[in-house]
Amino acid sequence: MEDDADTLHEECGVVAIHGHPDAARQAYLALYALQHRGQESAGIATADYKNLSNIKGMGLVADIFTDDVLAKLPGEMAIGHTRYSTTGDSALLNAQPIRVDSTKGLIAIAHNGNLVNLGNIRTRLERDGAFFQTTSDSEIIVQLIAHSHAGTLVDAIADSLSQVDGAFSIVMMTRDRIFAARDPRGFRPLSMGRIVNPDGPDTIVFASETCAFDLLRAKWERDVKPGELVMVTQDGVTSRQYSTGVPQTSCIFEHVYFARPDSRIFGRWVQESRDQMGRQLARESGVPADLIVPVPDSGVTAALGYSAESGIPFNFGLIRNHYVGRTFIEPEQRVRDFGVKLKLNPVRNLLEGKRIILIDDSIIRGTTSRKIVRMVRQAGAKEVHLRISCPPTISPCFYGVDTPRKKELIAANNSVEEIRRYIEADTLAYLSLDGLEQACHGVENNHYCTACYTGIYPTQWVDVEDILPAAVGAR
Ligand SMILES: O=P(O)(O)OC[C@H]1O[C@H](OP(=O)(O)OP(=O)(O)O)[C@H](O)[C@@H]1O
Ligand SMILES: NC(=O)CC[C@H](N)C(=O)O
Ligand code: SF4
Ligand SMILES: [Mg+2]
């Protein structure tokens, strides 16, 4: 447990552009703004009514898509993806968009989320002659479309989406149209925006997070609804509800950690939710102190809320090296031990002799917290209190977040007091589940998935092995 420096893994980001003379570049810019959702691989597919081009690579968006590469992606339509794998290896083979040639023509897909009823569908499709190019779950959706007996493409898509269970915010493209859809529970965000063109039809865009719209100067129009399938052609935008009556369970962890504070997801600004989480945390578990210090980046907004509510000053007592990725994963043990130090460094003159409240969004394995508490104390802090802006993470995610298995989740196997002792903090407190839900309630009175804090999953299909607690004595 002590030396395992793996932290949370990000998710995927998706984008789609319809009706722009340089769709590839627009997709590139949007993916740049969605880089925080996945840094393993990225890809852009474009269509010009005749062909469907597709370029993918391992690594970061800006490294893969140089001017020369973008020039090879002609067309007024594009879809794009940044990946962090949840099903299938992290390999070029599984990078997205995935393009499949079928009797219904060429189809490309980009998917954020994770399907939970794969096994039986894949076997059935293979028996029916499907030839899978990848080992990722996302290809199942296109193979289902390709093998559907429905008469039209839209019916085939609706048919396919009704058969898969789990989390999916997807964008798809054929030679002449774009589709966007969300699973019936609306686990992952997906918004629709518009770039108004005074001289011609507007450009329609879809993106996982609205921060991508700002870079394109697109105006947010609405969210794609859970269970909705939107189609964009040269004739305009049409939509159908392929599924109804399933209760919404959007991922609350998007508000806690994943999404950027400058995005509006599930009808609510992430900044506002995190600010409220911090304020509520201060109300629930205040402690006398001299300074609030966030664990950057994800702890910053909640720390500002905590400071505003408690009246205790806020300052950046930890500085983050921005050239280290969001999650520092290094295969070599020697370098992993060094990981948190490479990423964060204390500002000694702010911390010396002070009672510090550190604010972070989550403790997964406890590695980061333990090292940071030590670091702050070594920099001269008199007391170190840790406050976490969500409840203890006790169960893994099956819906597109790569949290470790239950036996590696520190809160699944230890009490708060045991964790406090392990991370060597003077006090430790988490936000309550009620407090978190209140902080994320917007005008739409959202309903969320909170399974990683409760172990109660909104879908039937989860991997039972993964949710069993650690065997006694295995710690
Ligand atoms: O308990 P652990 O397993 O150590 O993981 C928890 C840490 O991981 C995440 O940060 P991360 O480094 O992923 O990224 P950030 O810079 O976006 O906050 C999270 O915000 C915690 O700080
Ligand atoms: N994090 C995600 O959304 C991943 C998408 C898909 N399940 C994959 O593994 O490629
Ligand atoms: S289990 Fe947690 S991370 Fe996964 S969808 Fe539910 S709330 Fe989000
Ligand atoms: Mg963090």
UniProtKB/TrEMBL annotation:
- According to the entry, every stretch annotated as the Glutamine amidotransferase type-2 domain falls at 12-235
- Part of which pathway? Purine metabolism; IMP biosynthesis via de novo pathway; N(1)-(5-phospho-D-ribosyl)glycinamide from 5-phospho-alpha-D-ribose 1-diphosphate: step 1/2
The UniProt record lists the keyword Nucleotide-binding: no
Query: Would the keyword Magnesium be found if you checked this record's keyword annotation?
Result: yes
- Name the Enzyme Commission number(s) assigned to this protein: 2.4.2.14
Q: InterPro entries per the record?
A: GATase_2_dom, Ntn_hydrolases_N, PRTase-like, PRTase_dom, PurF, PurF_N
First-tier enzyme category under EC: transferase
- Give the catalytic activity: 5-phospho-beta-D-ribosylamine + L-glutamate + diphosphate = 5-phospho-alpha-D-ribose 1-diphosphate + L-glutamine + H2O
Catalytic positions are C12 (nucleophile)
Indicate what this protein is called per its UniProt record. Answer: Amidophosphoribosyltransferase
- Protein's organism: Acidisarcina polymorpha
- Gene designation: purF
